[in-house]
Amino acid sequence: MTTALVTGASSGLGAEFARQLAARGADLVLVARDREVLEGVAVELRGRYAVAVEVLPADLTVRRQLAKVERRVASTEQPIEVLVNNAGIGLPLASERNDVEVEVAHLRLHVEAAMRLMHAALEPMLQRRHGRIVNVASIAAFMPRSTYGAVKGWLVSFSRWANVRYAGRGVTVTAICPGFVHTRFHERLGLPPGEEGIAGPLWLDADLVVREGLRDAARGKAVSIPSLRYKLIAAVVRLLPASVTARMGERGR
Hints:
Elements: E1 3-7, H1 12-23, E2 27-32, H2 35-49, E3 53-57, H3 63-74, E4 82-85, H4 100-128, E5 131-136, H5 146-166, E6 171-176, E7 180-181, H6 185-188, E8 203-204, H7 206-218, E9 223-224, H8 228-237, H9 242-249
Parallel strand pairs: 1-2, 1-4, 2-3, 4-5, 5-6, 6-9, 7-8
């Protein structure tokens, strides 16, 4: 039976990844900071899909807690076949006004935590000659968008390289790059629904993002951009000067 570990699994895209993987018959290891919320998600998934669900509370910006998750990912006795690096936070775009320690925590979560978990996963996956790593990036990876675009750009770049490097040995690495998704992500930034400055057609549902992302990961794609509208946006953005795309990136949060 396949076991998948999902970070940021208590809500939003992480919870949707957990649901869709469970619906495919995967056992789960759920990682997030809030044990109580994770337990609630676990109860739902066990009851609905009859899969085993392990709860592993951890703050991935805290080195000791991240190490606990690394050990679980690296386990050869209870192997992880699918790793979903989904945990993430957003910050106001005016980086110069953000507390630098908060910016460093943002970097640790999006880059260091993802890198360490991939590093922990790769050796046992390569030994088994089978495994799948999914990194949740963003359409922001393709445009200048403060430190958020920068960290997501790192995820895309590394995923592209790693997929080429390891796919021939049975391990694929896919960066999923959604646009604006209906989750609580923007609410946590203090923006009530309707005040994000983004037109309605640009919003995606979490189930579509995860469904298309998992499909592309199964096909071994290095980069997945859910929905035709965002595929077109990504193609256009690559042709525009940075001064224009940076202004585009100021919309929304």
